[in-house]
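To close the section, here is one more complete example, presented without commentary so you can practise reading it yourself. The ligand is magnesium ion.
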Amino acid sequence: MTLISFDIDGTMVFGSPPGTITLDAVRRAKKLGCIVGSASDRPISNQIQLWAEHDVEVDFVSLKHRLDEIKDRFDATRHVHIGDTEMDKYFAAQAGFDFYFVHELPDEIIEGWPAAEPRQL
Ligand SMILES: [Mg+2]
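Output:
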């Protein structure tokens, strides 16, 4: 099972600034059985509020430097963090997560889950 952590600002469409990860992409990952949530510099209460406002039920919210605690909490075999800054990359590495820049996403991070919306040709 894969756990996917999303940064918010610069990563999620509802972040400030907005990123490219859509609510639909998060819902699709969840449907595939992924454990999904956010790891951001925003306070936990604010992250909970944002997901609620956008009607997505996430499995966790975390502070970005506490990804290791999220890893301990769930029984996942793979851990992924998606973010937009070097700090995301740094904290992901510290916690042993695979890291992807939101602007450099591969076609499929996990099988059957294109994180990015299909590109216009
Ligand atoms: Mg960010």
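Once you have examined the tokens, check your reading against these statements. Residues 44-53 form the longest helix (10 residues). DSSP finds four helices and five strands in the chain.
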